[in-house]
Write a structure and sequence with these properties.
Layout: H1 2-25, H2 32-59, H3 72-75, H4 77-92, H5 95-104, H6 107-119, H7 122-137, H8 141-158, H9 161-174, H10 177-193, H11 196-211, H12 218-229, H13 232-251, H14 256-274, H15 276-292, H16 296-313, H17 319-337, H18 339-373, H19 377-417
Helix pairs in contact: 1-2, 1-19, 2-19, 4-18, 5-18, 6-17, 8-16, 9-14, 10-13, 11-13
Pfam family, one: DUF445
Protein name: DUF445 domain-containing protein
Keywords: Membrane, Transmembrane, Transmembrane helix
Length: about 425
């Protein structure tokens, strides 16, 4: 604001000096140099006043007199506003210019670079921690539970136990589970046979079984003689001794009977696992259990417990630099290497901004118009004089100086002619 005021003061003083100089030369017209200076001062004064009139006429009526074609700005305010709006919309901020500049900018790359730089700041870690905790806390577990239960039921219903049975039968042989099962059974049988009361139990069962045999004649006589000799203790010892021998033979790896038993077990297990009726029966039993299962409360309880454990683990925020940030870094690195995807993202961004510009381009001009219309003529003139005042005042000064020089030339020519 200081410079325009100084220039305006200089412009006023130029007119004062020219007027004073013209008046001072009038008494000395008999001298040639005085006439020459008087003509120069007169022409400079006329030039300065003419430019003052022209500059003033742009903004207001000179001396308040409504001279035609003055106060051009207030009279043509609407035209000037329309011209300013048109210039801004079509030249300075034209749609084609904006779209061209946007298309040249790799917005997707800039966004990724910005995200990558901001990720490893303390503020970003705190924000990620807060967002992650809020996300876990706000999960609608009660609303999610029915969907999870339904999915569990669907997966369980679609699960076929047949392949599982067949794999179990195969793994039993390959991993030696059948041998372990046989060894365990033999160990339990041996342990039971070695108990004192086992002998009496076996004897009683044996005597009862023999007594029930129906024979006649000589065989009945022989059977009665055998029963007269035998009792539960003797019978039990005979049976136990026999069974212990059998168990001992089956416990030896090289014994052929053991291998025969194992082969029989494997064969029966494989036949059982591949039998359609067995598989269908197990699948049906499984499906009935699944259908009858009311698991909403159980699943919801497990999910609530899992959330509580997860939030407890998240308390100190150490999971962010340990897991979240490395994961985001890998994602950003993968995205940066995928130039094709970046090109597509950038194209979508440009298209989106272009559509936004096209849809709202007229608002730029409307904004200019609104801001101009907010000012009255006095404020608008003051603004323009403030921004252009120095140059406008130089027009007056230049007009005075130019007039002065032209006055010297013209007066000199006139003096030479006369």
């Amino acid at each position: 604001m200081g410079k325009p005021k100084n220039t305006k003061t200089a412009a006023v003083w130029s007119l004062v000096i020219l007027g004073a100089g013209f008046a001072a030369m009038l008494p000395f017209q008999q001298y040639g140099w005085a006439r020459l200076l008087a003509g120069a001062f007169e022409a400079g004064l006329v030039g300065g006043l003419a430019d003052w009139f022209a500059v003033t006429a742009l903004f207001r009526h000179p001396l308040g007199i409504p001279i035609p074609h003055t106060a051009l700005l207030p009279k043509n305010r609407e035209k000037l506003t329309n011209a300013l709006v048109s210039t801004v919309e079509n030249n300075l901020l034209g749609k084609a210019s904006i779209e061209s500049k946007i298309a040249d900018i790799r917005l997707a790359d800039l966004m990724l670079d910005g995200v990558e730089k901001g990720l490893h700041t303390p503020e970003a870690a705190v924000s990620i921690d807060i967002l992650a905790k809020r996300l876990v806390q706000s999960l609608p577990l009660a609303e999610l539970t029915p969907f999870i239960v339904a999915e569990i039921k669907r997966q369980a219903t679609n699960f076929d136990v047949g392949p599982l049975l067949e794999d179990f039968a195969r793994q039993t042989s390959e991993k030696g589970y059948d041998r372990h099962a046989l060894n365990y059974t033999l160990e339990q049988a041996e342990s039971w046979l070695l108990k004192p009361e086992t002998s009496y139990t076996l004897g009683a069962l044996g005597m009862q079984a023999i007594s029930g045999i129906q024979v006649s004649g000589l065989m009945q006589f022989a059977l009665n003689a055998f029963l007269g000799y035998m009792n539960e203790e003797r019978m039990g010892e005979m049976i136990r001794h026999f069974l212990l021998i059998q168990v001992e033979e089956l416990q030896r790896e090289e014994h052929p009977r053991r291998q025969a038993v194992l082969d029989g077990l494997r064969s029966q297990l494989t036949r059982l696992a591949t039998k359609d009726t067995v598989q269908e029966g197990l699948n049906g039993w499984k499906n009935r259990l699944v259908k009858a299962w009311e698991g909403d409360a159980s699943v919801l309880g497990q999910m609530e417990e899992l959330r509580a454990r997860f939030l407890k683990y998240m308390e100190d925020g150490s999971y962010v630099p340990t897991y979240i940030l490395p994961l985001l870094d890998r994602m950003l690195a993968d995205l940066k290497e995928n130039t094709g995807l970046l090109d597509k993202i950038n194209l979508r961004i440009v298209e989106g901004i272009t559509r936004l510009v096209e849809a709202n381009h007229s608002r730029i001009g409307n904004l200019v118009r609104e801001n101009v219309d907010k000012m009255d003529n006095k404020s608008l003139i003051a603004l323009m004089e403030d921004k252009l005042g120095q140059d406008l005042q130089w027009i007056r000064i230049n007009g005075a100086v130019t007039g002065f020089l032209i006055g010297i030339v013209l007066t000199g020519i006139r003096m030479l002619i006369h």
